[in-house]
């Protein structure tokens, strides 16, 4: 009679199998997971089979979109990652070498931050870490906090409030709102007045409105509040209400880089962050002026999960972002 082999006990699971789980969970692809761990696809498949046998769960199901995690895999992903990294921190980790790393960094940002900061990061990575990859995901996605929680996004860049304790953050810059319009606009030859913001139609940038759960300019998900509009709407509406006026929001777009072309050939005006306005002015067909009312300054931050606080590669990436942000000229020149 043939004796069947007993399943591998969870108590005897090799920690290397957990590294395989982590890589497959993040990449959703056996080939990419193998490249991350410098293992063949067959080795990854074999390790995954052993882990499935030990845990008595499929863990990942092959679909047209890749290896989709089961409910069991989703439930164990975050605590498992934290446990493995805690072990690495206790035992010591290999120093991070930018020149030879093949690590893939995933950053969430909107098009404005991508334009003014991540283009510089890409150039620096090309020089300092030529074999690394930079993936930019939209910071507007509704499951942003979840993606950070499960480790699919390393760092999110934006304006955040009510940051839960499981996240860490670092200040990149403080920005103010300014008024932007085309050259030849009626406001080009004089100082804007508060009444002008009711007289001229507004072009605004919203990264997620009330239909997506935004409240007071912020979307809250898993306890993390992130800015949904690229200007201080409350300050504008309060200033106009005091003058007995109301704004006319003619066009609202989700992408800031569409603003210049939409302003041309119209009398619309737009309220945007000063660093973005400075980038617009290089086109030489737009003008920018200070707002005729007081708006709150906003702090753009890099945000990450606390479990990555001491990861050498993650720390290197954060240092590059803070350094590049600090080197930027963020002053506003009308």
SSE arrangement:
Blueprint: H1 15-27, H2 30-37, H3 41-55, E1 60-63, E2 66-69, H4 71-91, E3 104-109, H5 111-128, E4 133-138, H6 144-149, E5 155-158, E6 160-161, E7 167-175, E8 177-182, H7 196-199, E9 202-205, E10 218-221, E11 224-227, H8 233-242, E12 249-253, H9 259-263, E13 269-273, H10 274-281, E14 286-290, E15 298-305, H11 312-326
Word description of this protein:
The chain is of the alpha/beta class and 334 residues long. 30% of the residues are buried. The N terminus is likely disordered. Among the domains are: 82 residues, Arc Repressor Mutant, subunit A (Orthogonal Bundle), CATH 1.10.10.10; 124 residues, D-Maltodextrin-Binding Protein, domain 2 (3-Layer(aba) Sandwich). Helix 1 packs across helix 2, helix 2 packs across helix 3 and helix 5 crosses helix 11.
List keywords for this structure.
D-Maltodextrin-Binding Protein, domain 2; five-stranded mixed sheet; 37% helix; alpha/beta; Arc Repressor Mutant, subunit A; 23% strand; 334 residues
Strand content: 15-25%
Q: What would the average pLDDT be, to the nearest integer?
A: 87
- The CATH homology group name of the domain at 175-298: Periplasmic binding protein-like II
What fraction, in percent, of the residue positions are helical?
A: 25-40%
How would you characterize the largest beta sheet?
5 strands, mixed
**Helix-strand category:** alpha/beta
- What's the total count of β strands? 15
Q: Please give the CATH class of the domain at 175-298.
A: Alpha Beta
Distance between the termini: 88 Å
Strand order of the largest sheet: 4-3-5-15-7
The shape is elongated
Low-confidence stretches: 1-8
| Helix/strand order | HHHEEHEHEHEEEEHEEEHEHEHEEH
Number of helices: 11
């Amino acid at each position: 009679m043939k004796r069947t082999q007993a399943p591998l006990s969870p108590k005897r699971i090799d920690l290397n199998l957990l590294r395989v789980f982590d890589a497959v969970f993040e990449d959703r692809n056996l080939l990419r997971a193998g490249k991350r761990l410098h293992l063949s696809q067959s080795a990854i498949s074999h390790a995954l089979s052993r882990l499935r046998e030990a845990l008595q769960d499929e863990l990942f199901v092959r679909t047209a979109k890749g290896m989709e995690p089961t409910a069991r895999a989703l439930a164990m992903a975050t605590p498992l990652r934290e446990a493995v990294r805690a072990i690495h921190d206790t035992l010591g980790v290999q120093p991070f070498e930018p020149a030879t790393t093949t690590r893939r960094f995933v950053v969430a940002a909107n098009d404005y931050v991508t334009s003014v900061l991540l283009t510089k990061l890409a150039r620096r990575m090309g020089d300092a870490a030529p074999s690394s990859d930079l993936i930019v995901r939209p910071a507007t996605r509704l499951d942003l906090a979840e993606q950070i929680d499960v480790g699919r996004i390393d760092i999110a860049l934006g304006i955040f409030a009510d940051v839960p304790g499981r996240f860490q953050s670092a200040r990149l810059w403080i920005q103010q709102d300014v008024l932007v319009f085309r050259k030849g606009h009626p406001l080009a030859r004089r100082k804007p007045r508060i009444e002008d913001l009711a007289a001229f139609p507004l072009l605004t940038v919203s990264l997620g409105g009330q239909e997506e759960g935004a409240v007071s300019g912020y979307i809250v998900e898993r306890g993390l509040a992130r800015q949904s509009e690229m200007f201080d709407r409350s300050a504008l509406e309060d200033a106009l209400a005091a003058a007995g006026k109301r704004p006319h929001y003619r066009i609202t777009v989700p992408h800031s880089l569409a603003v210049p072309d939409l302003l041309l050939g119209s009398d619309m005006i737009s309220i945007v962050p000063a660093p973005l306005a400075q980038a617009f002015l290089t086109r030489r067909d737009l003008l920018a002026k200070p707002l005729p009312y007081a708006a709150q300054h906003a702090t753009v931050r890099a945000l990450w999960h606390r479990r990555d606080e001491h990861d050498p590669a993650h720390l290197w990436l954060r240092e590059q972002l803070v350094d590049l942000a600090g080197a930027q000229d963020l002053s506003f020149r009308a």
